[in-house]
Write a structure and sequence with these properties.
- This protein is mainly α.
- It has two domains: 197 residues, no CATH class; 120 residues, no CATH class.
- Helices cover 74% and strands 0% of the residues.
- It is built from 18 helices and no strands.
- Helix 7 packs parallel to helix 16 and helix 14 packs across helix 15.
- It is globular, with a radius of gyration of 25 Å.
- Its main location: membrane.
Length: 395
């Protein structure tokens, strides 16, 4: 007797949900977030103590009051010393770079989350919309399997797979143990919040994941754990996509309600503000053309309001994504807000087709191998020059 059709559909749905999807999009998102955070922290490195450190006008006492009211946390407030701030700040840079490279992404994504929340919560009045998006997306990223491709983790797993052995991750185990000791030491630093429980849950899940892959190789328990983590990954990627749609949808419909963008004055005024004028000549050229201001204003409103509704149409979606990325690139250059623009471009990139990302990845791999091979050849020639060159030089 054949099974009823509803049961077949449920089985297919469970099978679909138990496989990780959008792995390349998650990897690109990981690389983008890590790169943006590292670039931002390096740019503000000369001013770090004035913005978030012991020289900041926003004192630690005022920051602690706001953090307690908003149920935030910041590890920077655990000590007011200069060296503690330097340790946290430079640790955030290291975590961002490691996340971008894909080194032990399950642990570094959580460390990256703690670093981002700590620095932004130290002085919440310095941020803009890009910082808000970074904070939210860093939380979602911690639940994804963002190191499945384009990462050092993926290369290590591929090497173990070719050898037919389980992954021997001694460095990951050492990192897991160190993070456990650190959590045990600082658990009292999360008063009135559930962040301590969340971080302990991440730590326990990381330990279970390693144990299953080390000692349950080929066992059903490992397959079950893979299915559960795949579902969490898929849910997190879905939430990221919904978050991006909410950002564009609310921005577009909010602009429709007012007269600033209907008359074009919203963009016109922004082009005349000194704060958004890194290139005065370029801003003045755009602002003096009413046709350009009109087209950009209405084009921005239409594209943002229509973004959530056009994602279901593949051809229109790809054109729309190209338009959105070009728009944010222009905003970053003309208005001088590169990190906000980069954050939105990275968020747009999660909707790119997998086939396109695979093609780009293969092209980048070939280019990297070609550059590496050429560098090796040049180094070999410098060490062992052809005999004819030496004879010609002596002659």
């Amino acid at each position: 007797m054949n099974r009823p059709a509803p049961l077949d559909r449920l089985t297919r749905l469970i099978t679909f949900a138990a496989r990780p999807h959008a792995s390349y999009q998650a990897a690109l998102f990981r690389i983008g977030l890590g790169g943006i955070a590292a670039a931002f922290l390096l740019r503000e490195w000369p001013h770090r103590r004035l913005l978030w450190g012991d020289r900041s006008p926003w004192s630690a006492e005022m920051a602690a009051r706001v953090i307690e009211e908003d149920h935030r946390f910041s590890v920077l407030l655990w000590s007011g010393g200069h060296w503690w701030f330097e340790l946290v700040y430079h640790g955030a840079i290291v975590a961002s770079v490691l996340l971008m490279l894909g080194w032990r992404t399950r642990a570094t994504s959580v460390v990256f989350l703690v670093a981002v929340l700590s620095i932004e919560s130290r002085n919440i009045y310095l941020g803009d919309a890009g910082d808000n998006a970074m904070r939210v997306m860093a939380l979602y990223l911690a639940f994804t399997r963002c190191g499945a491709v384009w990462s050092l983790d993926a290369r290590r797993r591929a090497r173990a797979r070719r050898q037919g052995k389980p992954v021997d991750d001694r460095a990951g185990v050492a990192m897991w143990q160190a993070l456990g000791v650190l959590l045990l030491w600082v658990s009292d630093g999360f008063p009135h919040t559930a962040w301590a429980a969340v971080l302990w849950a991440f730590w326990a899940a990381y330990g279970v994941w390693y144990a299953a892959h080390r000692w349950a190789w080929g066992h059903q328990a490992r397959d079950l754990l893979d299915a559960v983590t795949a579902m969490l990954h898929n849910c997190a990627m879905l939430v990221i996509a919904v978050q991006v749609c909410l950002i564009y949808g609310t921005a577009g419909w909010y602009k429709i309600q007012g007269a600033l963008w209907q008359e074009g004055s919203g963009l016109h005024y922004a082009l005349h503000l000194d704060y958004f004028m890194p290139w005065p000549a370029l801003a003045g050229l755009l602002a003096h053309s009413m046709l350009v201001v009109f087209a950009l204003s209405y084009g921005t409103v239409i594209v943002q309001a229509a973004f959530p509704f056009l994602l279901g149409y593949r051809r229109l979606k790809n054109v729309l994504l190209a338009a959105m990325m070009l728009e944010h690139l222009a905003i970053g250059v003309v208005l001088g807000i590169p990190f906000l623009s980069a954050m939105m471009i990275v968020s747009d990139a999660i909707f790119l087709p997998t086939s396109f990302l695979v093609l780009v990845g293969a092209h980048c791999s070939r280019l990297a191998r070609r550059v590496l091979r050429r560098a090796q050849v040049n180094q070999s020639v410098r060490k062992h020059p052809p005999s004819g060159i030496g004879h010609a030089a002596r002659g």
